[in-house]
Amino acid sequence: EKKGRGLISIKQIDVKQALAMAGSFNFLCSCAKACLLPFLTLYFRQLGLTPAMTGIVMGTKHFITLVWSPVVSLLSKHYNKRRVVICGSVVFSAAAALLLLLIPPADVQTQTCNTSDLSVGPTQSPADELLVNSTGPTASHPTRPLVSQSFVTYPHNTLADTKSPKEESSLGFLSSLNTMDAQHQLFFLILIIMCVWEAVSAPLEWNVDDGLYEYLDFADASDHYGSTRVWGVLGAACGVGGTGLLVSQLRCLIAAQTPRSVVHFYCYAGLAFLVFPLAISLPLYLNKKRDRTSRLLKAVQLVRGSPRALLCAFTTLLVGVANSAVDNFLLWQMQDHGSSELHMGLSLALALLSQAAFPLMAGRVSKLLSPGRILAVGAASLGLQCFYYSFLWGAWAALPAQVLNCFSSGAIWWAVKLQCEDVATLAAERSVGRVYSLSIHLGSGLGSFAGGFVAQSIGLTWLFRGVAMGLMVWSACLPLLQWKAPHQRRINYSRLLAADASEASDSESEQERDWLDKAMENDRSNNNNERRVNH
To answer: Which segments carry the region annotation Disordered (predicted)?
Structure first.
């Protein structure tokens, strides 16, 4: 049998080994992402992007994920190229991230410290590390180009002048960059690199999840699939906390004109190459009988046909909007109040660990509150967090609010999971869950675009307060709307199959007796009607 074509015998499947490899892969992959992605917008601020520009870049990133992940997942399954896509995504995403280090800042005043003092230690105050405010730096050299002037510099003679319209017009976008100021040149170069980066990294998660789930499902061990996600959360906490601690202990400049923030990129690339051997040997399986596109469309129809599922989808959309404000600009707000990478890393690590702790208390909480109420409590807790972020006063001020992540993000995803089980039919729970995941990305994309302009117009403080007020109003209206909406619970056949065999046989015998009784009654009524007609 050929493994490359997705044909695996049951003897070849080692469930424990597959779970160990999948857990290690998720741990290292999440650790690599957490080394860089939470600090990425902070690096954009250091280069000289405004909040509006940062919001556009991050919003574009979410929209690429929204569209590109399902498309590549479908194509990789159709052509049986999952492993190629996974390995290519790991390598090229690391290379694309390093391209950002080639872009110079838009303003020499946005350096992370005084370039004449290279002996500054880790005790330097965070206020001295970045000389910009929340609305972005003011370029002191607005005409300094980021693109080489060789594109538009030619000898001054008639023949050369005649050829130079033609050449400039053929260069197109690169030629137009030279006519822009330095900040807009920076913005478009970052946007291009981010589009390439997200295009190569977005397909990774879906392809790994599909291959691993189908591998475990082939061995009738799909119930162990959820255990691998815990390792991803733990890896993210280690990555963001460890990198924040490492960078905070370095001197302000690790080399001439090289800020210490580049360590985030090197850690990301280094861990990505450690993931590559696991990507090559990751247990995958291809079940060609499953049509993922039709399943996703059916999941959309299931969500659209259930009022409660629609309310849950709209809630996740608002949660995505709020998450975009937190992910994009929380570190800006912390930096304005004296936080360093140490405070930021430990704060974000505590949030992740707090989120992972909710399943431990979910049993008791679910006895007190219904899934709909848990969803409303999660939205209210997230709103309370955003409201707290608008009143930061010191370096460690954000730390207490991160404990609420247990009842915000943790509770929300637990309620979404229950909603998936409630609305989904046979083998459709994962597809319904992906509908809610895409709703999060849609909200994050819209929130990034809007949040960037709001932050630039009225400031970060009112951005967080506005998001908090919106979530609070929705969390108050959600229970009323859920009470008005009819409850359409579908039969979950996977639960019926897991029921006790004796109970199943008893219920089947009862159903057969009911069917026989109804058939005999119908037969008697038909005979009576025929006799009446004959008489």
So the answer is: 502-535
Total domain count, the chain: 3
Q: What is the DSSP string of 452-516?
A: HHHHHHH-HHHHHHHHHHHHHHHHHHHHHHHHHS---PPP-HHHHHTS-HHHHHHHHHHHHHHHH
The answer to the question of residue 145 being in a domain is no
DSSP string, 212-247: HHHHHHHTT-GGGTTHHHHHHHHHHHHHHHHHHHHH
Could you report the per-residue pLDDT of 95-104, keeping only the tens digit for each? 999 999 999 8
The answer to whether 61 and 173 are in contact (CB under 8 A) is: no
Identify whether residues 184 and 246 lie together within a single domain. Answer: yes
Task: Provide the whole-model pTM.
Answer: 0.81
Task: Report the C-alpha gap between 15 and 308 in whole angstroms.
Answer: 36
Going from the C-alpha of 187 to that of each of 57, 118, 191, 535, the distances in angstroms are: 8, 29, 6, 93
Q: Are residues 330 and 280 in the same domain?
A: no
Flag whether 227 is in a domain.
yes
DSSP lists the bridge partners of residue 255 as 258
Examine the domain organization and report whether 123 and 202 are in the same domain: yes
Tokens matching residue 521: 């009654």
| Residues 6 or more apart in contact with residue 266 via CB below 8 angstroms | none
C-alpha 296: how far from its chain's center? 18
CA distances to 61, 71, 202, 265 from 89, in Å: 15, 15, 8, 16
- Say yes or no: 381 and 239 in one domain: no
The two tokens of residue 438 are 């895409």
Distances (CA, A) of 156 to 151, 165, 174, 391, 473: 15, 13, 21, 59, 66
3-state DSSP assignment of residue 118? coil
Kindly report the average pLDDT of the chain as a whole number. 81
Indicate the DSSP class of residue 69. H
Per-residue pLDDT averaged across 108-133, rounded?
Answer: 41
Tokens of 470: 């919106």
Query: For 189-219, how does the pLDDT look when each residue is reduced to its tens digit (9 = 90+)?
Result: 999 999 999 999 999 999 999 888 888 888 7
pLDDT in tens, 233-283: 999 999 999 999 999 999 888 877 788 999 999 999 999 999 999 999 998
- pLDDT at position 505 is 46
Residues spanned by the domain of 525: 501-529
Q: Report the number of secondary-structure helices (H) and strands (E) in the chain.
A: 21, 2
